Amino acid sequence: MTDTATAQTSATVHVAVGVILGTDGKILITQRHARQHLGGYWEFPGGKVEPDESVGQALTRELREELDIRVVSHRSLCRITHHYPDKSVLLDVHEVTAFEGEPRGMENQPMRWLDRRELRSDQFPAANRAIIRALHLPDHVMICDCGTPAAESLPTGAMANTALIRLRRTDSDPSPSNYCAMASKLIQLYSHNSTDTQTVRFLLDSDLNSHAEILQLAKKFPLHVAGFYLNSHAAKEIPPGHQLERADDLLLGTSCHSEVELHHAAVLAVDFAIVSPVLPTTSHPGNPGMGWPAFSQLARDFPAAVYAMGGMQLADLETAKQAGARGIAGISMYRKQD
Predict the structure, then answer these.
(1) Topology agreement, domain 12-128 and domain 140-334
(2) Average pLDDT score over the chain
(3) Span 126-142, average pLDDT
(4) Where are the beta strands (DSSP E) in the chain?
(5) Which terminus of the chain, N or C, has less C-beta within 10 A?
(6) What is the CATH T-level fold of the domain 12-128, as seen in this structure?
C-alpha cells in the first residue's frame, strides 16, 4: 500500500486512523461525543482524508487537531473497508510509534490509555473491531500437524504463550470429527501452560463444509481458540462475499503462494495471510523461494498483516519485519530440540 490518497466513490469515506502507542506499550483511545455518528463508542483517533492529502498527511493533521500532538513516526497496520447502513468507510490504520507533545482532548473528548488485552470489541464501532484483532497478532505463528508425535513437542513457556499455534489438519485424516477430537486433546494439553497474564492461543483449520463443526469446537474453548485458518485450497472454495461465521474477536487467516491468492484473501477480508515460500526449504528441494524483495512487494500491497514462511529461522524475525511482515511462521524451527 502506498501512502497516497486513494480515489473513492462518493459513498465511501476514506479515513486515516492512528493507533497511538505509549512508551509503556499502552494504546490511546478516545470516546465519541453523544451527538456524533455512533456516539458513545470508544475509538482509535483519526479523521477523513482530504482529496489533496496522503494518508500520512491526514493522520498528522487529524492527531494535531484532535490531540495536540505531532506525529514523528508511523507505520501501516491494516486497511479495512466496512459498510454501515448509512455509509461505507475505508480505514487506513497506522501505528503511531513516536510522537511529540502530551495528548489532550482538544474537543473535550474523554481519553484512556489501555493495554491491548483491555480492548473490548463491544465498546468500539463495528469498523474498529478488525483493528483490535490486528493488534492481537503476535510475532510468531507455529504450525503443528494434529495426530502426529511432533504435535506434542512444540515449545512451552514464553514462546508458546506469545505465539499463535495453528493446529493443521493433515491430508491423511481429513475427517472433521477426528480433527476436532485431536485438536481438543492438544488444546487441553497446552492450556496447562497458560498463566494469569498469558494464554496459549490456537487457530483451528476450517473450510466451507466443516465450519459449523469447527465453530462448535471454538465455542468449547473460548479462552484458547484465537480464530480459524483456511489452507489455500479451502480459501479458493469460499466465494467472494461469503463470510464464515465467527465472533468479533476471532481471527481469520489463510495461506497464500501467489499474488492471485493474496487478492482472493483480501476479498475474503482475512486478518492475516501466511506467504510462502520466501526462502529455500528442505521440504521443497529445487524451489529457491520468492526472496525478500518479492515478498516485500506482496506485503506492501496487501491490506492486512502478512507472515513470512519457508526457510525461516528465529533469527529472521527482524529481517521479515523490515520487509513488511508482521512476523514469521514455520514448523520445524519451533520444535523442541533434543
Answers:
(1) no
(2) 88
(3) 89
(4) 12-21, 27-31, 42-43, 46-48, 70-83, 88-100, 111-114, 140-145, 163-168, 201-205, 225-230, 251-256, 272-275, 305-309, 327-330
(5) C
(6) Nucleoside Triphosphate Pyrophosphohydrolase (3.90.79)
